[in-house]
Design a protein that fits this description.
Elements lengths: L1 H9 L15 E3 L2 E4 L5 E5 L4 E10 L3 E11 L5 E12 L14 E4 L2 E10 L12 H11 L8 E9 L6 E10 L2 H4 L6 E2 H4 L1 H13 L1 E5 L1
């Protein structure tokens, strides 16, 4: 098992253009372990397969580390996924994260702020090539996966300390019917417009993973 984990991590350590390369979090089987910011273990349901991880500078102001677990068909079409992003601002700036606590959820004793949106073409959304979203899509494509078109996703943010300069973002997404996504081309708030669907997506996100403090 150890050798498999080493291969997975090693595959993500390719340096490009001075980007940071070493992954700080470890993945073994269904379990991701983070020693800090925050110190947690996250265990995923067996139907999800680890798709890889990467670390990079984000817009020159922050450093991000991404990990992905996916449930997909044999041809690589993603049915549901988890996108984890550990992020912190660089010492060269004084930025901080600020998320209005309009909606919150307790996951393993950590309080996350969350929102849910629906898209008719999530895979085809325009993304800034330098964005974390574009980098996520590129990693998944390289691994042989494609995102769903009609989809709903919930984003969850946890600020790791009072400085508000470090965060864990977890995005859970899944394919939905064209009917559920009707009229949501640019992404509409399911929390406001489709509360039943938002609640279902939130339940699925919670059911597929278990977060435990270390």
């Amino acid at each position: 098992m150890y050798s498999i984990a080493v291969l997975l991590v090693s595959a993500a350590l390719l340096a490009q253009n001075g980007e940071p390369t070493k992954l700080d979090r470890q993945v073994q089987g269904q379990v991701l372990t983070s020693a800090a910011d925050p110190a947690v273990t996250i265990t995923f349901d067996k139907k999800f397969k680890y798709a890889g991880g990467q670390r990079f500078l984000l817009y020159g102001v922050a450093e991000a580390e991404q990990h992905f677990f996916v449930q997909a068909s044999a041809d690589g079409k993603i049915q549901s996924f988890y996108w984890l992003q550990f992020e912190h601002y660089l010492p060269s700036n004084d930025h901080h994260y600020d998320y209005p606590p309009t909606r919150t959820v307790d996951l393993g004793g950590l309080m996350f702020v969350h929102d849910t949106k629906v898209f008719t073409n999530y895979a085809g959304q325009e993304r800034n090539p330098e964005s974390d979203a574009a980098k996520a899509v590129a990693l998944l494509k390289k691994a042989g996966y494609t995102l769903p078109a009609a989809a709903a996703r919930t984003r969850m943010f946890y600020l790791t300390d009072s400085s508000k300069r470090k965060e864990l973002m977890i995005i859970y997404g899944e394919a939905v019917s064209d009917k559920d996504a009707a009229g949501a081309q640019e992404g509409i708030s399911a929390d406001d417009k489709m509360p039943e669907l938002a609640a279902k997506i939130g339940e699925h996100a919670d059911a597929g993973m278990k977060i435990e403090k270390r």
